[in-house]
Amino acid sequence: MQESVPGIVIGRLPVYLRALNILQQEGKEVTSSQELGKRLGISSAQIRKDLSHFGEFGKQGTGYSITFLQESLREILNVNRLWPIALVGFGDLGNALVHYRGFPAKGFFIQAVFDNDPGKVGDKINDLTIQASSEMERTITQHNIKIAILAVPIEAAQSVAEKLVKIGIKAILNYAPITLALPPNIQIQNIDPVVHLQQMTYYL
Amino acid sequence: MQESVPGIVIGRLPVYLRALNILQQEGKEVTSSQELGKRLGISSAQIRKDLSHFGEFGKQGTGYSITFLQESLREILNVNRLWPIALVGFGDLGNALVHYRGFPAKGFFIQAVFDNDPGKVGDKINDLTIQASSEMERTITQHNIKIAILAVPIEAAQSVAEKLVKIGIKAILNYAPITLALPPNIQIQNIDPVVHLQQMTYYL
Questions:
Q1: Does the pLDDT of residue A1 top 70, yes or no?
Q2: Do A197 and B203 touch (CB under 8 A)?
Q3: Does the model's ipTM exceed the 0.90 cut?
Q4: A169 and A140 in contact (C-beta within 8 Å)?
Q5: In angstroms, rounded to a whole number, what is the distance separating the alpha carbons of residues B170 and B38?
Q6: Minimal Cα–Cα distance from B82 to chain A, Å?
Q7: Residue A129 forms beta bridges with which residues?
Q8: Does A58 touch chain B (CB under 8 A)?
Q9: Which residues, 6 or more positions from A79, have their beta carbon under 8 angstroms from its beta carbon?
Q10: Residues of chain A positioned with their CB less than 8 A from the CB of B97
Q11: Which residue in the set B18, B146, B196 is minimally distant from A177, CB to CB?
Q12: What are B57-84's pLDDT values in tens digits?
């Protein structure tokens, strides 16, 4: 039945999970839709409605057990495991992503890094070695990688994305400022700071 | 009347503008809601409806003049000018943002960079000099900066954001993985790769 949950609801679940992690770090064990709503600038009714798609998580009057709701959301989002990620493109952004320490606690780790610059191939960052793009197929198949982060120049984005899909990638987090055209069964999310900045200047 | 346009519509306008820029780079002068829709995976009816909030941009049967629609969207989004940005936090991500060359063509430039690490203050990147956080108020006031990009550690994000608002910042692009609590008149947009990745793993 979860196929029928609107995408906008799914989009809020990671934000709820993030807020729960912070509440837990603050030493709290129980929370409420009111407290979560206040933290997130979302109405408590919206939070209760979103969660009701997936079951009953709190008792009337006693609120939510943070640990239980965390575990439930992790299960719903399939991040009660560690997903290997292929990072494609090791420019400044790729470098920032490799050094980002927030992934493992959230269900992800960068398994492999690819770049087509011969001057970078073979370089070591932490315990990763930058591989040539020609190694993508072998490595992605070998490690059964389903998720890629695309951090290549705009000119290369579409063709690299198509290659990744052919190799077996099912989800792409795209940092190139272009809308990728890929088969409908491929999950795509986009991060473009300009898109966010221009949304804000509308209101300024 | 533009205040009544739903935020989700505003959110799509920068994506339309981005697609128009690419079409123009491809040498095209005219496009249609069908062509745009196909590029963006959005229905042509949705695009026409979104644009109709702001006027008439195409003639029945002849489509949109790309230049005219670009100019119109730039005007609507207030990016027919260059907005100075204060980048706060010069870690790996801050470094990637400073080196990102996509801002000026889209209406933005990084005017000032701040970090509280004395080892970084005074360093030069391109024509920018990293300034101490204590310089924020003076610099942001002097250059009348209204937009900040927040690329500081999660622990510092809320307090730095509050300080920025006090100084006169009206819009914050927040890269820290936390929901900021700020006055309702402040525009906030968030970029957290984990939130995007977890939305995709739901479907995997």
A1: no
A2: no
A3: yes
A4: yes
A5: 35
A6: 11
A7: A124
A8: no
A9: A106, A107, A108, B198, B201
A10: 193
A11: B18
A12: 877 777 899 999 999 999 999 999 999 9
Neighbour tally for B167: CB within 10 Å: 16
Q: Between the CA of residue A116 and those of A133, B78, B185, what are the distances in Å?
A: 5, 38, 45
What are B71-78's contacts with CB under 8 Å, separation 24+? Answer: B73/B13, B73/B16, B73/B17, B73/B20, B74/B17, B74/B107, B76/A202, B76/B2, B76/B13, B77/A198, B77/A199, B77/A201, B77/A202, B77/B13, B77/B14, B77/B17, B77/B107, B78/A201, B78/A202, B78/A204, B78/B107
Give the contacts of B61 (CB within 8 A, at least 6 positions apart).
none
Q: What percent of chain B has pLDDT over 70?
A: 98
Phi, psi for residue A30 in degrees, rounded to 5: -130, 145
pTM of this prediction?
0.94
- In Å, the largest CA–CA distance within chain A is 61
Q: How confident is the model at residue B177 (pLDDT cuts 50, 70, 90)?
A: very high
CA-nearest residue to B7 within chain A is: A199
CA B109 – CA A69 distance, rounded (Å): 42
Whole-number pLDDT of residue B189: 97
Type of residue numbered B110: I
Six-digit token string for B123: 């360093």
* Residue A182 pLDDT exceeds 50: yes
- Tell me the three state secondary structure of residue A124: strand
CB-CB neighbors (< 8 A) of B147 in chain A: 197, 200-201, 204
For residue B2, pLDDT beyond 60? no
User: Amino acid identity of B152?
Assistant: V
Contacts of residue B19 in chain A, CB cutoff 8 Å? 179
